[in-house]
Specification:
The chain folds into 3 domains: 427 residues, Aspartate Aminotransferase, domain 2, CATH 3.40.640.10; 240 residues, Type I PLP-dependent aspartate aminotransferase-like (Major domain) (Aspartate Aminotransferase, domain 2, 3-Layer(aba) Sandwich), CATH 3.40.640.10; 174 residues, Aspartate Aminotransferase, domain 1 (Alpha-Beta Complex), CATH 3.90.1150.10. The protein contains 33 helices and 26 strands. The structure holds pyridoxal-5'-phosphate. Its EC number is 1.4.4.2.
């Protein structure tokens, strides 16, 4: 028997069921379906040139070969990235557990209570540690979080919006580069200054400080902060959560905003990411917070429940007026960091911090004792030593590497050493040897023991933290591994993720995240590599990344790809910046108009604004396509000003527009560039290439089409792909040297999850990938057809077919019955399903995307649920019950409601909980009833509620 190739594992339907499904659609082959569905004008002429598919075993072996070319060293480079121990119980039960990593963003709060609690723990921990009132559920990385803080200060400080932002020169170099790029694009004036010299004269909108600084320095900023505030500025401090356990936190120093990375709370280095950045603000600024915010609200019976708060700030509603373009963030990593805090508690974190500090002190004392020069004597975990000559510094770095330790090359004559949770006395001794403080690497480490015993701190007493933090019981009750394992299981059981049900979310492409694809990410040869480790130690990473970029270029029909953007939104921003820079390089300064169809994803408009462009909306025609007449009018109204059009293909309406070439042509004629949002690439891979049918630049979502799991709202990777003429404007590893500003702190963004997408491509090969696309089309068209008489599909393309998703139009039914699309989403929970995409891109509709990974049994289970729900709607239409009496309106039904003694509903308990027979064996009960979102926004609470809040 020939072994089954991976494609057959990835694709749900087998040959027989494929035939059945095709039969329903009236086709006798997938090829015939594709020929009818995909416009001939955009079909790619040749098969993809990709290496032949590998088996799962061969793929793992190939990943091992990449891994073996990376060198695992003791990473003491610091600079925002510090080794940490991921507690095994968290690694196994969160990072490697599909119940956590395959979950979607918690927009449906009733099926997301577990991850919402985990994120609320994170928010509470961050707010406490930074000494501020409210924190969000994560941002993308520290440098972009600083940029978000600067934008926030400008928004909030209306009186001095136009004034400059002062930035501490002692800020990480990667932050400086990312921030400079973002500020330039947004037209914000930055001035870097030496904080030791005091604040420069003149009006200031905001001040950015870093504590501990890039030099490692821990400085009392209170004077500077109060002066800045007296002068009308807002103040942001970039900080380190571990340092905050010992040092007076930013909030207590008077800062309005704190940002930073939570990486060292149990998250591997991952060659630079994914790591959860955080942002915390004092109260009064919470409505300005970018990203997602978990809040406390209540359900229909008044039970305490969690939900995302202030959702009206989301880009879909605010569009070009959105506070930021962040959509996918770093939820899974925030969960890990939060659980690290839960497991260690405040006393455990403090112990870790004291040890880290004591080790750094030991090193500093030894350097001083040997007559060495320190850059600063007030530090937390980072000691910098100034040498006489360039050669001496070189010798030390090389000597340390020779004994297995990476130190930081700060500048010509400065060497930096950062200690961390994993640092051992033996490693300190090796460093001392490399620094020439001891003559042999093998002596017993009593040198450090002395200092370790004295218990003093290297920073001024006035900066010693005295306030409590993490006082909530959750940070005090989970100490044994059994408790932790069960806590993680309990939370996971409250949620629906891909490990239990299809998640038919249009535009989000919730497909299989195969175990083999996930394997490599926690191998130390990938996970324990510092993003700034010397190039010769990271050959495996580089080869994997180049190979991945090449394959993505081949798939998209572009010439170059950068994987640096760490979410789709960041890819959009990078792509639009490339367009803007291209126009500027040709002296085309006036090209600042970005055309965006009315139906576009909300991030498109907000990214355009961040890239310094002006959004002009293009209307949608009756049939859902771009209105060509309106396009012509908008082009004519802005002569020589069109920078770009941003289109999604297939359109967000789930159809292949046959005149896409014409749209591209007209924009090119007008001198504009074409940005094709590639989030829907699952409908194109192997069949059509955006770089070929008219695009100049696209971003892809590796966490959609290319199998990186959604993680409950991140991580993501949003590579940006460009045509030849834009290559010079791509953010790359050398950004900052080449001119294109980097969009993430780490050279390859969220590198740590790239092996997932690489593995997917290696496993599938050209044929498998193309087949997956065909099956994505088959599944969507099958559902559309089977549901047609119950819920009509709003838009279809050629031959009445859709692409990889279909929009079910409920607006007529809502008019007749009062039952809304949201009611249907909530009722689907009772049937054990995660809802489709609600109200995007058309209000009153549901967008369904089954993906190729769902087999026919699961698809039929979904159809059965939808048909049963349609019958429930009919009962309301027929007047058998009022909408407000219907199970649809009361959905979802938690066990506590269904089993309660008093039951006075117009339908039976059985109808409530077991509306179809298949549920009798496998039943998911949501932990809460429908959640009242507005209540939570009126009474905004975004930290862990006291245990009594859960008593009814
Ligand atoms: C998901 C999506 C985006 C944004 O991607 P993120 O990774 O969430 O930032 C942009 N455009 C479309 C059409 C999308 O579906």
């Amino acid at each position: 028997m020939t072994p089954v190739g991976f494609a057959a594992r990835h694709i749900g339907p087998g040959p027989d069921t494929t035939e059945t499904m095709l039969g329903v659609l009236g086709y006798d082959s997938l090829d015939a379906l594709i020929d009818d569905a995909v416009p001939a004008g955009i079909r790619q002429q040749q098969e993809l040139h990709l290496p032949p598919a590998l088996s799962e075993a061969e793929t793992l072996a190939a990943l091992r070969r990449f891994a073996s070319q990376n060198q695992v060293k003791t990473q003491m480079i610091g600079q925002g990235y510090y080794p940490a121990h991921t507690p095994s119980v968290i690694q196994r039960n969160v990072l490697e557990n599909p119940a956590w990593y395959t979950a979607y963003t918690p927009y449906q709060p009733e099926i997301s209570q577990g991850r919402l609690e985990a994120l609320l723990n994170f928010q509470t921990m961050v707010a406490d540690l930074t000494g501020l009132d409210i924190a969000n559920a994560s941002l993308l990385d520290e440098p972009s979080a600083v940029a978000e803080a600067v934008l926030l200060m400008r928004r909030a400080n209306k009186a001095q919006t136009g004034a400059r932002i002062l930035v501490d020169a002692d800020i990480f170099p990667q932050t400086r580069l990312v921030l400079a790029g973002r500020a330039e694009a947004a037209g914000i004036a930055l001035e870097f200054f030496d904080a030791a010299q005091g604040l420069p004269e003149g009006e200031i909108c905001g001040l950015v400080l870093q504590q501990p600084g890039n030099s490692g320095a821990v400085v009392d900023h209170s004077g500077l902060i109060s002066e800045a505030k007296e002068r009308g500025a807002l103040v942001t401090v970039a900080t380190d959560l571990l340092a905050c356990t010992l040092i007076t936190p930013p909030g207590e120093q008077g800062a309005d905003i704190a940002v930073g990375s939570s990486q060292r709370f149990g998250v591997p280095l991952f060659f630079g990411g994914p790591h959860a950045a955080f942002i915390a603000v004092r109260s009064g600024l919470q409505r300005q917070l970018p990203g997602r915010l978990v809040g406390v609200s209540q359900d229909a019976e008044g039970r305490t429940a969690y939900r995302l708060a202030l959702q009206t700030r989301e880009q879909h509603i605010r569009r070009e007026r959105a506070t930021s373009n962040i959509c996918t963030a770093q939820a899974l990593l925030a969960v890990v960091a939060g659980m690290y805090g839960v497991y260690h508690g405040p006393e455990g974190l403090r112990r870790i911090a004291e040890r880290v500090h004591t080790q750094a002190r030991g090193l500093a004392e030894a350097i001083k004792a040997a007559g060495g020069t320190l850059v600063t004597e007030s530090f937390f975990d980072t000691v910098q030593m100034r040498l006489e000559t360039f050669e001496e510094a070189e010798r030390i770095i090389a000597g340390a590497e020779a004994v297995g330790v990476n130190l930081r090359r700060v500048d010509e004559t400065t060497v930096g050493i950062s200690t961390d949770e994993t640092t051992t006395s033996r490693e300190l001794y090796l460093v001392a040897y490399a620094l020439g403080l001891v003559d042999r690497p093998s002596r017993a480490p009593e040198l450090f023991d002395e200092v370790i015993l004295d218990g003093d701190f290297a920073y001024p007493d006035s900066l010693a933290r005295t306030s409590e933090y993490m006082t909530h019981p959750i940070f005090h009750t989970v100490r044994s591994e059994t408790q932790m394992m069960r806590y993680l299981r309990r939370l996971a059981d409250r949620d629906l993720a891909l490990d239990r049900t299809m998640i038919p979310l249009g535009s989000c492409t919730m497909k299989l995240n195969a175990a083999t694809e996930m394997q490599a990410i926690s191998w130390p040869e990938f996970a324990s590599i510092h993003p700034y480790a010397p190039e010769h130690q990271t050959q495996g990473w580089r080869e994997l990344i180049v190979d991945l970029e090449d394959r993505l270029a081949e798939i998209t029909g572009y010439v170059a790809v950068s994987v640096q953007p760490n979410a789709g939104s960041q890819g959009e921003y990078a792509g639009l910046l490339a367009i803007r820079q291209y126009h500027l390089s040709r002296g085309d300064d006036a090209r600042t108009v970005c055309l965006i169809p009315a139906s576009a994803h909300g991030t498109n408009a907000s990214s355009a604004v961040l890239a310094g462009l002006q959004v002009v909306v293009v209307a949608t025609a009756e049939d859902g396509t771009i209105d060509l007449e309106d396009l012509d009018e908008k082009i004519a109204a802005h002569p020589d000003q069109i920078a770009a059009i941003m289109i999604t293909y297939p359109s967000t309406h789930g159809v292949y527009e046959s005149d896409v070439r014409e749209v591209c042509h007209r924009v090119h004629e007008a001198g504009g560039q074409v940005y094709i949002d590639g989030a829907n690439l699952n409908a194109l891979v192997g069949l059509a290439q955006p770089g070929e049918f008219g695009g100049d630049v696209s971003h892809l979502n590796l966490h959609k089409t290319f199998c990186i799991p959604h993680g409950g709202g991140g991580p993501g990777v949003g590579p940006v792909a460009v045509a030849e003429h834009l290559v010079d404007f791509l953010p790359t590893e050398d950004s900052g040297l080449t001119g294109a500003a980097p969009v993430a702190g780490a050279p390859y963004g969220s590198a740590g999850v790239l092996p997932i997408s690489w593995a997917y491509l290696a496993l599938m090969g050209a044929e498998g990938l193309t087949k997956a696309t065909a099956h994505a089309l088959l599944g969507a068209n099958y559902i559309s057809r089977r549901l047609a008489e119950h819920f009509p599909t709003l838009y279809t393309g050629e031959n009445g077919l859709v692409a990889h998703e279909c929009i079910l139009d409920l607006r007529e039914l809502t008019k007749e019955s009062g039952i809304t699309a949201e009611d249907v989403c909530k009722r689907l929970i009772d049937y054990g399903f995660h809802a489709p995409t609600l109200a995007f891109p058309v209000a009153g509709t549901l967008m369904v995307e089954p993906t190729e990974s769902e087999d026919l049994v699961e698809i039929e289970r979904f159809i059965e649920a939808m048909v049963a729900i349609r019958a429930e709607i009919q009962e309301v239409i027929d007047g058998k019950l009022e909408a407000h009496e219907s199970p649809l309106r009361h959905a979802p039904h938690p066990a506590v409601v269904v089993i309660a003694d008093d039951w006075d509903r117009a339908y039976s308990r059985e109808e409530a909980a077991f509306p179809v027979s298949g549920l009798q064996q496998d039943k998911y009960f949501p932990p809460v009833s429908r959640i009242d979102g507005a209540h939570g926004d009126r009474h905004l609470v975004c930290s862990c509620p006291p245990p009594e809040a859960f008593e009814l």
